[in-house]
Write a structure and sequence with these properties.
The structure holds 2 protein chains of 2 kinds. By secondary structure, chain A is an alpha/beta fold. Chain A has one domain (3-248): Rossmann fold (3-Layer(aba) Sandwich), CATH 3.40.50.300. Chain A is built from 9 helices and 12 strands. Chain A has a 6-stranded mixed beta sheet, with helices on both faces. In chain A, strands 2-1-4-5 form a 4-stranded antiparallel beta sheet, covered by helices on one side. In chain A, helix 5 (148-162) packs parallel to helix 6 (178-191). Chain A is globular and about 60 Å long. The N and C termini of chain A lie far apart (74 Å). In chain A, 39% of the residues are buried. The mean pLDDT of chain A is 89. In chain B, the strands form 2 sheets. Chain B has a 9-stranded parallel beta sheet, with helices on one face. In chain B, strands 2-3-5-7-9-11-13-15-17 form a 9-stranded mixed beta sheet, with no helix packed on it. Classes of the chains: A alpha/beta, B mainly beta. Chain A binds chain B through residues 50, 52-53, 73-75, 78-79, 83-84, 86, 89-95, 99-100, 103-104, 107-108, 141, 158, 162, and chain B through 257-259, 261-270, 272-273, 276-277, 279-284.
Chain lengths: 271, 311
């Protein structure tokens, strides 16, 4: 059973702390939901776990099955068992979905092992069918011309084929209509097993009606300020986050605005 | 001389060998003239399906003349296997009124000698040329393209993909003249500088006075894979008419960081991810190659150019 541990994680960008003392443990078989107002660091946390080069860890550790990920590259983390379904999946012009997913699955097989192409084609067709993505998906360019819902379903398709140990789903519900949300919910729920730990980042209860979490964490200003069970979801859905502000004595969610230089006017010095 | 059966097949390959005089002799459509090989098409029947013509390079200058008669529409791939001591190549295309040519023109191979490919295109009223070029030559090459849109409503779509490898120089000079009203041109250049290569593209599109409602667009994109490589593009528009739609753009840089991150996050190592992104960049050219044998040759040529790139 996989374990992802985040210990005292602090991340800053341009001297501003954006993740502050994050502690989280996710075991295989568990589903964790991370909720919180906009701009509180939920997606940043997912990107930092995945190793996005934009972020630098100031202190703390990320461990997967006891192995420290901090120094690992993005692809090494993926091959170690992490998967991030992105909020805004990237378009890759000219690269077919088939070649993309095939290369991804091949990368996870390890050295010396080769993908059995016939088996892979059938698995991809089945996954596309489960997600009701229609024929022709394999030959379309990665996310190019995809609707918002198709992009999100394509992320889940990759997850089904790559079979990660820990999957972070970043706002997988945004851009999905009711039917598509149900399809995604059913597919992710069907993947639940002791071999897969899930982290759902979302704003809405509707996703968590489809994929029921075991733990709910609320993030505010880069920190996890409350952890509870699914009862928290209904409370947030009904009352927002104001009650939590009051409970925790958080004044306002006012961002500290840094002055931005717009450049300098041309100057002339007189000797 | 009897016309070989394969020449009339749905899809055929015509090989112009090194001893070019020995090939077909006088087929009614193809002739060896004092100025080189000439293909004159005035009968649609024989050319309904896509045709691939592979021309072996020569140490003597070779000219190819293509002349499509009025309202003839054909889809050809005319590709060159470059010789080690390649001489200059000339391609002359003349499209009569309403003629339509979808042409793929790929150059692959290796040459120790610098050589020039000159392509001169003359388009009549309402004719259409969709030209997709690929240049994957191990050596120094210069492409000089001269397009004359001489007929009202003639249209040109020219897409060129070039890859330059170790210590190579690639130069392309493209001149497009809109000599009549309602003419349309769309020029796209996709460049990949692998290793320490120098690439330079100079595109000039001219719309003269009175050639109203003409449209010309240029799009130039370049990827530099290694620090010492360089790509320079000079996109130019010379417009002497108010009622036109014209624009140009140029983007040169390294591989898109977001695309790279996305592929890495799926477990591919950096080299694999970059190769896949580059293959996507090249896909417009791959898609145009009908002949599987030549496609394999092209893939090998690309692999050779990219070999040793420090991903």
């Amino acid at each position: 059973m996989a374990v992802l541990e985040i210990k005292n994680l602090v991340v800053s960008v341009e001297d501003q702390v954006i993740l502050n003392q994050i502690n989280l443990v996710i075991h295989g078989g568990e589903t964790h939901a991370i909720m919180g107002p906009n701009g509180t660091g939920k997606s940043t946390l997912a990107q930092v776990i995945m190793g996005h080069p934009k972020y630098h860890i100031d202190s703390g550790e990320i461990l997967l099955d006891g192995i420290r990920l901090n120094e690992m590259s993005v692809d090494e983390r993926s091959r170690a068992g992490l998967f991030l379904a992105m909020q805004n999946p990237i378009e890759v012009p000219g690269v077919t979905n088939f070649d993309f997913v095939k290369s991804a699955v091949q990368a996870h097989l390890g050295e010396g092992k080769h993908l059995r192409i016939g088996k892979f084609i059938l698995a991809m067709e089945d996954a596309a069918k489960d997600l009701k993505m229609g024929s022709g998906l394999a030959h379309r360019y990665v996310n190019e011309g995809f609707s918002g819902g198709e992009k999100k379903r394509n992320e889940i398709l990759q997850m089904k084929l790559i079979k990660p140990k820990i999957a972070l789903l970043d706002e997988i519900d945004s851009g999905l209509d009711v039917d598509a949300l149900r399809i995604v919910g059913e597919n992710v729920t069907a993947m639940k097993s002791p071999d897969l730990g899930l982290v759902l980042i979302t704003h809405y209860q509707r996703l968590l009606d489809s994929i029921i979490p075991d733990y709910v964490h609320i993030m505010i200003r880069g920190a996890i300020v409350k952890t509870g069970g699914k009862e928290l979801i209904a409370k947030i859905d009904a009352d927002g986050y104001d009650w939590l502000k009051a409970e925790l004595g958080i004044d306002e969610f006012v961002e500290k605005k840094k002055p931005i230089s717009l450049g300098t006017c041309a100057t002339k010095s007189v000797k | 001389m009897k016309t070989p059966n394969f020449f009339l097949a749905d899809e055929c390959t015509i090989l112009f060998g090194k001893k070019s005089k020995d090939i077909f002799g006088n087929y009614s459509g193809i002739k060896l003239t004092s100025d080189g090989w000439s293909i004159r098409v005035s009968n649609q029947k024989k050319w309904k399906k896509p045709v691939t013509i592979v021309i072996e390079g020569s140490t003597k200058p070779v000219n190819l003349h293509i002349h499509l008669g009025a309202d003839i529409s054909v889809q050809w791939s005319i590709d060159y296997l470059i010789n080690l001591k390649q001489a200059n190549i000339g391609i002359f295309i003349k499209l009569d009124k309403g003629a339509r040519l979808v042409l793929t023109n790929v150059f692959i191979g290796k040459s120790n000698k610098e050589f020039t490919v000159s392509r001169i295109i003359d388009q009549a009223i309402a004719s259409e040329l969709d030209l997709s070029s690929g240049i994957v030559v191990d050596g120094n090459i210069k492409i000089a393209d001269h397009y004359e849109l001489n007929g009202v409503g003639s249209r040109l779509k020219a897409t060129m993909l070039a890859i330059a490898g170790q210590n190579e120089t690639f130069t392309s000079i493209q001149d497009v003249f809109h000599n009549q009203p309602l003419t349309v041109s769309e020029v796209t250049n996709l460049l990949v500088s692998a290793k320490e290569s120098q690439m330079h593209v100079d595109v000039t599109e001219t719309i003269g006075k009175g050639n109203y409602q003409s449209v010309c667009h240029q799009n130039n994109r370049g990827i530099i894979l290694e620090e010492k490589g360089s790509i320079t593009v000079e996109p130019k528009l010379i417009i002497d008419e108010y009622d036109v739609d014209a624009g140009h753009g140029c983007a040169i840089g390294q591989i898109n960081a977001d695309e790279l991150y996305y592929l890495l996050s799926r477990g591919m190592n950096e080299a694999t991810a970059k190769r896949l992104i580059i293959s996507g960049y090249l896909s417009p050219l791959y898609k145009r190659i009908e002949n599987p044998g030549f496609l394999k040759k092209l893939e090998k040529a690309i692999e050779r150019q990219m070999k040793g790139v420090d991903y």
